[in-house]
Amino acid sequence: MLAQTTIKSFDEGCESLLINKKLRYIGILDKMGNLIFEKEQQGISSIMSDKKSRSLYIQSVLEILLQKDFDGQIGSLKYDVSHRTKMDIITIPVFDHVILISVEPKENTDLIANNAINIFDKIFDKNDYLDNQKNSYK
C-alpha cells in the first residue's frame, strides 16, 4: 500500500505532465509489472481492455529488464519509445519502477520523456519515498 505522501507526489507529477493535452495516460509500474498508480487525461477513453493493459504492463517491465543486460556495454537505458499507428508508448525505468506514458502519435516523445524523467527522478529520489514505502508495510 502506498503512503499518502507518495500518492500525492505521484498525482502532482502526473498532473504536471498531463498539462500537455496530447498525453493520454501515465501509469507507474512496480518491478513485477503491477500497476501502482495511474492517471488519465480527462475526456479520453482507454483504447485497450483491462486484460490487454495488464499484458502491456508486464511486457513493458520485462523489456526494460532485458535491456538492462546491455548497460555495461552500451550504457544504461534512459527510455524506450514504441511508435504505433494509434499512439506512441514511452517506457522509462526509474529506480525499481517503470513509468509508462501513452501519447498521441507524432508528438515530441523525446521532450515528453525527458520532462517525465526530471519529474519522477525527483519524486523517487526523495529520501522520504523509501521511508514511506518501508513504513507502509509495518
Which terms summarize this structure?
138 residues, alpha+beta, Beta-Lactamase, five-stranded antiparallel beta sheet, 5 helices, 5 strands, 22% strand, disordered C terminus
Describe this structure in words.
The chain has one domain (4-136): Beta-Lactamase, CATH 3.30.450.30. It starts with a helix and ends with a helix. The protein has helices spanning 4-17, 50-67, 71-74, 109-125, 127-136; strands at 23-29, 35-40, 80-83, 88-94, 97-103. 46% of the residues lie in helices and 22% in strands. 23% of the residues are buried. Strand 3 (80-83) and strand 4 form a beta hairpin. A 5-stranded antiparallel β-sheet has the order 2-1-5-4-3, sandwiched between helices.
Count the helices. How many? 5
Strand arrangement, major sheet: 2-1-5-4-3
**Sheet with the most strands, sense and barrel status:** 5 strands, antiparallel
Uncertain segments are: 134-138
Q: Work out the radius of gyration.
A: 15 Å
Instruction: Classify the secondary structure makeup into a structural class.
Output: alpha+beta
Q: What would you say the CATH architecture is?
A: 2-Layer Sandwich
Strand portion: 15-25%
Shape: globular
Tell me how many strands there are: 5
Helix content: 40-55%
CATH superfamily: Dynein light chain 2a, cytoplasmic
Q: Write down the secondary-structure element order.
A: HEEHHEEEHH
CATH topology: Beta-Lactamase
How many domains make up the coordinates?
1
Mean of residue pLDDT values: 87
Question: What top-tier CATH class fits best?
Answer: Alpha Beta
What distance separates the N and C termini? Answer: 10 Å
